[in-house]
Here is the input.
Amino acid sequence: MIMNLSPRFPDLSSRVRSVAAGLVVAVALGAAGCVAAPHSAVTTTNAVNGFDRFPVVGPVRYQNDYGFSRGGGSRRHQGVDVMATRGQKVVAIESGTITTRVYSSSCGHSLGISGDDGGYYLYCHMNNYAAGVAKGGRVWAGRPVGNVGSSGNAAYAYPHLHVEVHPGGATGAARNPYERLRDAERRTGVITRPPTGWR
Here is the structure.
């Protein structure tokens, strides 16, 4: 369908009318394309939406600190830190297999989960692991895997859980998990107020 915009907008130059007409056609075709796709064809994926569960149970505080300077400017923060009270329960945000369960000087008590969705989810600075959490074991979204702490290079920091996400698997690049955390928070009703002792 070609629309003649001249009678409606006689003061527009022919060039502006051509651009406007092109936009109207593009919008009309785009809308038709959207209508043609049935709603059932749309699938929900974690690439856009939140995690199956928020990683910390109880009151938390966090901000989008992905990419912030760390180590005196020598590196960039590859995750989001979820501040909480020491000992608060940490749960798996996705179902999968535990592929990493180690203590390191930087990450402290860490846990890596290779998700059934193909992503890799890394937790750092936990106080301890939950009973039965072992390398090679399976976890489901929401299963307790440990408790919030400040282990590793966070020994003098406020207790928190470092949440790092690699959508392409353990060897893939890290991606900012902030929006996915926010979505999980909205869906699961996590309390986001300062924990006891927060300054």
Notes: Confidence is low (pLDDT under 50) at residues 1-48. Helices lie at 14-36, 178-188.
